[in-house]
Structures are given as C-alpha cells and as structure tokens.
Amino acid sequence: MEKPITIEEFLTRSELSQHDEGDCLPSEFESQLPEHVKLDDRPLGTGQLLDCWEKLSSHDQITFQKQYGDLSHLLKIRVQHACFQAMIGFWDPEYRCFTFDTVDMTPTIEEYESLLNCPKSEKVYFYTPIEHALSNFAWITQTDCQLAKSHATKRGNSQGWFWNVLEAIFKRRLHDESNEIRLRILVVGIYGLVLFPSAEGMVNFEAVNVLKNMVTL
Distance (Å, rounded) from C-alpha 26 to C-alpha 57? Predict the structure, then answer.
C-alpha cells in the first residue's frame, strides 16, 4: 500500500505537478461535444440499495452513520431533472466535471466530507493500481480472491462487479453477529452506484479501491 501523506502535502504535490507538467490531455486535443445528448437521470440501483438499508437493524444503521456519516441520505434524494437540463451544456466528458469558462466545478475532498458529514481524515492516498481491486474486494466481503476474479466483469470501459453479486453476499451476512462486512458492502454499493457511477448496475474497481483506502486510513 502507498505511504499515506497529509492533505496539505497532497495539495502541494498536485499544484506543483499541474504547474510543471501542465494538462493531462495532449496540447493538440480538442473536445468533440455532440450537438444533441440524451439525458438519462434514472437512479442507478438506489432502489436496491435502499432495500438493503431498510433491512439493517436500528443498531446497524446508527453504527453506519457513526462510521460513514450521511451516505445513506443519498439513497433518498430526488433527482432534479430541470437542474440537469440547465447544466448539461457545461459538462466536460474528458475531465468528467462541469466547466464554466476556465473554472472547473468538482467537489474537493474536504467538500465531500462536509456535504456527507463524513468523519474527517488527515491522510489521503494516491491512485491504487487496478490489480489491487481483486484483493480489496475479497477484504471487503471476506471472501477469497478467486471468487472476486470469477465474478469480475467488463462493460465498455468499466471493470467491476454487478451489484447483485454484492447484494447476495450482503444478504448472507445480514444476521452475522458482527455487522462490519454488511456495512462495508452497503458503503461500496453507494460509492459505486451513486457517488462514482460507471456502467449501469456495476460497482467498478475504483469504488472498491476508494473504500479500502478510506477504511484503512
């Protein structure tokens, strides 16, 4: 695992890297935006996640909120279609954020923590190699890497696991004396289907790696 650094060190490194290396895209790159887009704001699996949340005991729900803040509130938020219609023209598919002239609008680590009332962390980790996702999946679900590999799939540019694989493990662990595994599974589901969605119904490798790093800070 990468050695952790403070948030201040991370921000300093990021600023120096941006100054020295410039943009991550080639200088000759020109973004090709389509004239027409189809806006699909259907919730990606929030109904299934909400069902899992409601299956938890009140004790489990309290423990979840103490450990992970207000993540569960995302399952009950209604999508504002008019807001998406107004902002879609400012979406930059290459940077995956909204861009207003020279300003990129994307939440910082601190803003995510504040918005979701997450426990504050003094450490951050850099990018975790994709190949670590299999062992991280096995750690989160307390299964073996062979099972993680056998259920991993690829759809388009996304690699990961369909939520129904994780949901089945969640249900098997629902009445375990320890609630650690079922809570981890629900969190990674929220990360993969709500916060950082990729292919429909899929929890990607990146979401699994983010949770593993967050939990082991």
Answer: 51
H/E/C letters for each residue in the chain?
CCCCEEHHHHHHHHHHHHHHHCCCCCCCCCCCCCCCCCCCCCCCCHHHHHHHHHHCCHHHHHHHHHHHCCHHHHHHCCCCHHHHHHHHHHEECCCCEEEECCEEECCCHHHHHHHCCCCCCCEECCCCCCCHHHHHHHHHHCCCHHHHHHHCEEECCEEEEEHHHHHHHHHHCCCCCCCHHHHHHHHHHHHHHHHCCCCCCEEEHHHHHHHHHHHCC
Separation of alpha carbons 208 and 186, rounded Å: 11
Sequence-ordered list of residues with C-beta below 8 angstroms from that of 164, at least 6 positions apart, any chain: 201
pTM to 2 decimals? 0.74
Length of the chain: 217
Q: Which two tokens stand for residue 126?
A: 């850099």
pLDDT tens-place string over residues 126-151? 555 667 888 999 999 999 888 889 99
The region that residue 122 occupies, defined by phi over 0 for left and psi between -120 and 50 for alpha, beta otherwise, is alpha
The helix/strand/coil state of 204 is strand
pLDDT > 90 fraction of the chain, expressed in percent and rounded: 26
Question: Do residues 198 and 158 make contact, with C-beta atoms less than 8 angstroms apart?
Answer: yes
For the chain, give every domain's residue range: 43-77+125-215
The better pLDDT of the pair 15, 179 is held by: 179
